[in-house]
Amino acid sequence: MTNMARTHLDRLENQSVFIFREAYHSFKNVAMPWSMGKDSNVLIWLACKAFFGRVPFPVLHIDTTYEFPEMLEFREWATEHYKLNLVVKINKEARARGVGYETHDPVTVTHELKTVALQQAMAQYGWDALITGIRRDEDPTRAKERCFSPRNAQFEWDYKDQPPEFWGQFATTAGKGEHVRVQPLLDWTEVDIWRYIQRENIPIPQMYFAKNGQRYRSLGCRPITKPIKSNADTIDAIITELETTRTSERAGRAQDHHERNAMQKLRAKGFL
Amino acid sequence: MTNRASSTHDLASSIDPKLRVVFVGHVDHGKSTLIGRILNDTNSLPEGKLEQVQRACAAENMEFEFAFLLDALLEEQEQNITIDTTQIPFKTVKRNYMIIDAPGHKEFLKNMITGAANADAAVLVIAANEGVQEQSKRHAYLLSLLGVQQFCVVVNKMDLTDYSEARFREIEDKYRQFLKTLNLEPRVFIPASARFGENIISPSKKMTWHKGPTVADALDDMAPLAPPVELPLRFCVQDVYKFDERRIIAGRIETGMLRVGDELVFSPANKTSIVQSIESWQPRSDNASGRANNETAIAGDSIGITLREQIFVERGYVGSHSKNAPIETNRFHADLFWIARQPARLSYLYTARLATQEVRCQIVSLDEVMDSSSLERSATKAEQLERNEVGRMTLQTRAPIVLDNHDRVPPLGRFVLVDDGMICGGGIIHGGVYTDRAAVKSKNIFWSEGKINAQARAAQHGHRGAVIWLTGLSGSGKSTIAQALERELFVRAMHPYILDGDNIRHGLNSNLGFSPDDRVENIRRVSEVAKLMSDAGNVVITAFISPYRADRQRARAIAMEGNAEFIEVFVDAPLAVCEERDPKNLYKKARAGEIREFTGIDAPYEAPVDPEIVVQTHQQSVEESVATILERLLPRLK
């Protein structure tokens, strides 16, 4: 009976769809940050699966003003393609103060142009839940996350006292000013993401594929995102590359490595 | 000696589900070291990670330990304990794994549960030098409660006992005996030293007396849990979507199998309907075979279906096949483990969540409290259940709950108790109790100080008060719908009450006739009574023709003065249809001139301009009309 079989990807997809629907039911005012990166696009795809072809909440792009032009082009295309309700947020105040990679360290810039921008958007729109595309295997601090992860009004993550999560029951309430990070991709790995993109034929930016001996494995701000040496110009080639590499996915993201525990400090203050 | 590490591109590894394995054990018995060792010896660590941690240790003058590989967070290194559940992937030649590292520290029980409840299999770690300790027992017991069946025991730190077989056997015998009391049967006991890599990936030369598998072999012998398709169907509704013309009932199949054309019974209301379609955005496929399949769905699938008949279904409903339906009750027995700081109290009002159901409930008796480490039961009646204790108890819910015995359908046989949005404990159900109402003790519920206002009443009733104003011609079906609606609300443990000509005209308004002035006064009094009753927390359903817009507007104004929700329902049917029905022969009498100023005949009916809800009784059945009303109404009463 072939119809009894479910693959690893089926199991992940089913779980993610379940989480999406729990979040949509539990919170009045949901939004989904969208970076146009591969995980973000898988998230859009899964939302369409959960809600039968539509993303029934706003999609937020935090525009640091240091975006790759190809990504912005993809943003316009995908917004039209999926009929997204796109909200673009720039921390104009910080840019006006001169905060930028030209003059400041990457941790400061990331905090100001991403986390603070997110706080501004949250204050403006009053969202009580954010659906994020983070995965446990990206970073040790993300490994300890929950599918429903509360943040207090200051955006702080109390990772020492997280709510229990079992039997499909989650922390689905947020107090005033607080919000919950809902993370449907938590159990996925980088290879899972690629296999799923391949299986479902999910549109992604072309920068992930190798050109002239290099490609981007993880995409962030232009000045602090470095390509890796690679000839992987197809998804098959990327999967083969990932199954043999032992370098971490975010190795090319400078803000993670600026100082010891940089990622932990960023995340405790509200970074995704 | 085989190298189990794999770096080849292996397609099968991504098709087969990963084995999720949780590591548990007493604090400091070496779980983290064991995991670090497995990651290292299977080449699963990121490049340079080992060297990086070794350098960090050297810089701080500490001896390197494999456990440090896991403790990537600064705080953990300082405290030297694992503080939360972590998930780490690794792979052997045979398959991919997800390691769930659950902490051993007593106060972190909730993290262990979070990790262990999602596991396919478990590894229990016991240090050879210390032997079976409190948490060795507690964790085994929790695994049995959580339903983790596959597990093996690693007797670690054998290097500290000179790799002694006698010591190993002593621990094995003692622990096996204990596990037997829980009906647990470990697959295998493995003597090991994570620190020195003995019996982890390859057989130990220091313990040649051990003829069994290594840790990696034992893991490879376990299997991911297959979806429970052979159990009775339980389709748990998460939501009902109406994004377009389709009304899609979305949810997850917890157990069993569902096919297009199946007749489903939805509990608690126990209405039946046939599955018309399984909806999906992209064609669903059996990806193992790649073939499209929109006809069948099985346990684990998150799906959406449409039904042939439009019965009322909402979140929390459970779809099943009628010959194998779940129990519906408001009273049941359970074993409950408690993880909140505040103890569980008798009679306190908690929220029980079972699958997607949410029902308010109380512990009505606490029959037995168990110390979860010694597993000694104290049968004396207790008043509360402390953190980390397990109690055998009876619970009573405010509204019917749909459940199964845990040993029959596990996903419908377990629930959590929630207080103020926080999950406080989890329980396993032994069986529904249908009678024995005499044993219900009435105890005071804890009230906050202060005036009892609409909010407090709503909190106690579980819903807000409201006025549902039905209007329509005589014979349009107002009374029939009012009664069916009252019944639907009542079985939801809500507090509905009908005001109609029968109970108003005979008493309160017995001094009123049918003159225009009296009609206006009639409706005014009804409006005032409805306001008071809704303020008292009731859902008042009025069933009067109330033909004049101005009267209904006033009724709305009166209700709103009292901050009551006012919902105008237009019970619409053409005059000809109503006259054809003529249940009380009133139209005939009006036509014959026996009754004067009869609405629709010689008095006008002013149809609502913008009612909250319209039902068309010449096209919709009573059930469909009530379903339409409930769908709009229930969200407004929350």
Can you identify the CATH class of the largest domain in chain B? Answer: Alpha Beta
**Helix-strand makeup class of chain B:** alpha+beta
Count of alpha/pi helices of chain B: 16
Determine the mean pLDDT of chain B: 84
- Report the CATH topology name of the domain at 2-189 in chain A: Rossmann fold
Report on the biggest sheet of chain A: 6 strands, mixed
Number of strands of chain A: 8
User: What structural class do you assign from the helix and strand content of chain A?
Assistant: alpha/beta
Gyration radius of chain B, rounded: 32 Å
List low-confidence stretches of chain B: 1-13, 73-84, 433-450
Biggest interface and residues each:
A-B, 64 and 75 residues
Can you say what the CATH homologous superfamily of the domain at 2-189 in chain A is? HUPs
What does this structure look like?
The complex is a heterodimer of chains A (272) and B (638). Chain A has 272 residues and is of the alpha/beta class. Chain A has a domain at 2-189: Rossmann fold. Helices cover 39% and strands 10% of the residues of chain A. Chain A has a 6-stranded mixed beta sheet with strand order 3-2-1-4-6-5, sandwiched between helices. In chain A, strands 7-8 form a two-stranded antiparallel ribbon. In chain A, helix 3 (69-82) links the parallel strand 2 (59-62) and strand 3 (86-89). In chain A, helix 7 (190-200) runs antiparallel to helix 8. The longest helix of chain A has 20 residues, at 106-125. Chain B is elongated, with a radius of gyration of 32 Å. A 6-stranded mixed beta sheet of chain B has the order 2-3-1-4-5-6, with helices on both faces. Chain B has a 6-stranded antiparallel β-barrel with strand order 7-8-15-11-10-16. In chain B, strands 17-23-20-19-24-25 form a 6-stranded antiparallel barrel. With 638 residues, chain B is an alpha+beta fold. Chain B has 16 helices and 30 strands. Helices cover 26% and strands 29% of the residues of chain B. Chain B folds into 4 domains: 11-220, Rossmann fold (3-Layer(aba) Sandwich), CATH 3.40.50.300; 234-324, Beta Barrel (Elongation Factor Tu (Ef-tu), domain 3); 327-446, Translation factors (Elongation Factor Tu (Ef-tu), domain 3); 457-637, Rossmann fold (3-Layer(aba) Sandwich), CATH 3.40.50. The chains are: A alpha/beta (272), B alpha+beta (638). The interface between A and B is large, with 64 and 75 residues.
